[in-house]
């Protein structure tokens, strides 16, 4: 195989830094291993962020997610680790990672972690009739 997992996240310049906009990335095939049993855990990840100066490139994000396939990780830990790593790479104004893990032993787990730049003010919500 020529493509391999990689922890390197490639970035590119925000094409419209003067405007707040939201990027939403659905990652429906995330896998890691249960640290207790070694069995695979499957999740759908939803990454939403308001970029500042940089955006994350999608192929590098895919290869980054692939690095977790053979790693044991608790749901709470892996969700926060992923958020921290992407925030470190692009320093967004706001980022939310929602990790919806498939059922395991009759229990579904959803972990939501957020980052907010303290210097950023979210725009006011506009309600249309």
Automatic annotation (TrEMBL):
An annotated Gene Ontology molecular function: preQ1 synthase activity
Alphabetic keyword roster: Cytoplasm, NADP, Oxidoreductase, Queuosine biosynthesis
Active site: 34, 41
Catalytic activity: 7-aminomethyl-7-carbaguanine + 2 NADP(+) = 7-cyano-7-carbaguanine + 2 NADPH + 3 H(+)
Keyword Transferase applies: no
Keyword Ligase annotated: no
Subcellular location: Cytoplasm
Top EC class, one word: oxidoreductase
Family designation: Belongs to the GTP cyclohydrolase I family. QueF type 1 subfamily.
The protein's annotated pathway: tRNA modification; tRNA-queuosine biosynthesis
Main subcellular location: cytoplasm
GO CC terms in record: cytoplasm
Entry protein name: NADPH-dependent 7-cyano-7-deazaguanine reductase
Function as written in the Swiss-Prot or TrEMBL entry: Catalyzes the NADPH-dependent reduction of 7-cyano-7-deazaguanine (preQ0) to 7-aminomethyl-7-deazaguanine (preQ1).
EC number: 1.7.1.13
GO biological process: tRNA queuosine(34) biosynthetic process
Residues binding substrate: 56-58, 75-76
């Amino acid at each position: 195989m020529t493509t391999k997992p990689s922890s390197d996240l490639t970035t590119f310049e925000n094409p419209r830094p003067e405007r707040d906009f939201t990027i939403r990335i659905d990652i429906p095939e995330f896998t890691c291993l249960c640290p207790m049993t070694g069995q695979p855990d499957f999740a759908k990840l939803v990454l939403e962020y308001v970029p500042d100066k940089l955006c994350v490139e999608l192929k590098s994000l895919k290869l980054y997610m692939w690095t977790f396939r053979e790693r044991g990780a608790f749901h709470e830990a892996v969700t926060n680790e992923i958020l921290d790593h992407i925030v470190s790479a692009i320093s967004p104004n706001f980022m939310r990672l929602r990790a919806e893990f498939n059922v395991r032993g009759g229990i579904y787990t959803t972990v939501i972690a957020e980052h907010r730049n303290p210097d950023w003010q979210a725009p006011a919500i506009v309600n249309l009739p």
